[in-house]
Design goal:
The chain has about 625 residues and is of the alpha/beta class. It is built from 20 helices and 19 strands. Strands 3-4-5-6-7-8-9-10 form an eight-stranded parallel barrel, surrounded by six helices. Keywords: Transferase.
Amino acid sequence: MARWNPKKGVLDHEHSHFWRHRLVDLEEPNLMRDIFPYVEVPRIDFDHKLLPIDPAEDIFITDTTFRDGQQARPPYTVKQIETIFDFLHRLSGPNGVIRQSEFFLYTDKDRKALEACLAKGYPYPEITGWVRAVAADLQLVVDAGLRETGILTSVSDYHIFLKLKVSRRQALEKYLAIVKAALDKGIRPRCHFEDVTRADIYGFCIPFAMELMKLREESGIDIKIRLCDTMGFGVTYPGAALPRSVPKLVRAFIDEAGVPGRLLEWHGHNDFHKVLVNAATAWLYGCSGANGTLLGFGERTGNAPIEGLIMEYISLKGRMDGVDTTAITDVAEYFEKELGYRIPPNYPFVGEDFNATRAGIHADGLVKDEEIYNIFDTQLLLRRPVSIIITDKSGVASVAYWVNNRLRLKGDQRLDKRHPGIVKIHKRIMEEYAKGRNTSISNEELERWARRYLPEYFVSEFDKLKERARSLAAHLVAEVVESAAIKSMDPEMQEPVLQTLLELNPFIQYVYVTDAEGRKITRNITHIVDRAKYDQAHVGEDLSDRPWFIEPMKNGKVHVTDFYTSRYTGALCITVSAPIRNELEEIVGILGIDIRFEDLAKMEEMEKNGRSWTD
């Protein structure tokens, strides 16, 4: 049988009824041990058949940040999901480059997040659901008012026999039943062919897909198929064989099962470092949808990173299609600052060093013209100026370049290489290499030296740290003054509580209690290394003239001082104080906590790097 192909202008061969693929039901699973031996690295075999590319007419991205992406990190809050969804909308643009985003539907938080994002009224990404192959789950989709849902339909014998404990025919019947139930409710099903790159393509997957296309024709409702490379086994090599060949998988579903390319999606994992190229290859061979997550979050090694898919899309299409690529930088900053995720420095497009060079000759080229060594105008497209990795070969001009980019100084604000602070930083760098150093200078080191020699340019950062100190200490002191032991105004009961507070919070330098007259009633509670420095401080000392005493006594509120130099230790400190009240709410004393700025800054840096104080 032949059918006219208007796109190619020839007759295409189409299998007759007698030649169509049928389900091959087995008693034992076919685990393809010659390709997947398990005790060794999987094999890649070839059938030497080459396929020409045949790109999909409409390529797009679909998102699973809130489904697969959440399975690789602590769950997002409703507010976080809203914010991230806004980023996806910006990346999608008005033409729906990111066409859809799938959501969990099972918990109250899931549903609240779904409702909040639906309320935004964005045309793109369209919100879809995800459910198990269980009829009862479909009601969640109906209740949410969604038009489409993903349905988990595992297709490899590993899943059918070893996980589900059923035969191929039983699995097929179960899957078709849930699809029919979805169609009866007017829901557009998207069947997730889990573990397709280890599946029997012609013995199960293609017959299953053919049955789905029959249901599509009967119902008039599109049925989508997501090809899930669950273990990252997909390969793009010319002549590679099924089931691992991405081109042959896509073409098998289109040519053999009759699935329109617009109804196919590729969903990959990065177990073998091929997740992005596999997705782009699926596009090139006729699959319209490439599924991914922001920053590649996903089970185990993760999914195709959406920021990477965006760049591939633009590269293949040759146009932006309304995509706001600067949203990629905003996503990265949000994940680092708000979610506490540490992005690897060399991560493409968003890592701290992704557009940096460390070779001296390259750095010299960048100073002269950044286009020589930059992949594209990263300032224009990502709001990320090109950067330099500093070594002893970099020169003073390179140091000035690094500082100006770090501080985002423009025009007349930019520092000249002869600026005294720049010269001092360069001198400090050369001293390192004079001592025998043979590694590049880290951004952390440069940042530290820039703060030391150019302090006037870091006032805002300093203010942020002060605010962090105020917030942290105010919370601590407000909690402690409610303790029964502290309220007792009995020093013997108070001091163990204060000692525990000190030990749990190493950034605290000194903690004490005064009575309502301002006289210190507790002994010196401080770290053992500082104990001798506080010899002058004694029980009964009159502190009633201190602002940290006067203000809480006056207004009954927690008081935070500005930074000052401690007269005992000489360290830069901040004091937080709060009133102690009795049962009648009368102020009977003041609790004071001195915090050492250096220790607080150290703690802040450790938290940014994902470490704790005790590491």
